[in-house]
Design brief:
Length: 97
């Protein structure tokens, strides 16, 4: 996606290696990145601002579980998966916000 995320992926690989495990560096598709940023924005503006990073984290966990269950899914399908939940959150804005 960009140099920052390429470097971060290398950091994750090295941190895992220090724990005796070889992992593939996580890659971030631009469509998925956009949906994660929008999801974080919605969480920050409709819930508590501090929930935004945790919302993105849970989206990543859920997306990888979906991908493990259906390996044939591509990044566009993962982006749509995240979009679906984001749109649900947008419709459920708590009163007073």
């Amino acid at each position: 996606m960009n140099r920052f995320f390429e470097s971060l992926a290398e950091d994750w690989v090295e941190a895992a290696r220090r724990r005796g495990v070889d992992i593939a560096g996580p890659a971030l598709d631009s469509r998925v990145a956009l949906e994660l940023l929008e999801l974080a924005r919605v969480a920050a503006h409709t819930q508590e601002r501090r929930f935004a990073p945790l919302t993105s984290y849970t989206a990543g966990v859920a997306a990888e579980r979906l991908r493990a269950a259906k390996p044939e899914l591509d990044d566009a399908a993962i982006a749509e998966f995240i979009l679906e939940v984001r749109q649900k959150l947008e419709r459920e804005v708590p009163p007073g916000i």
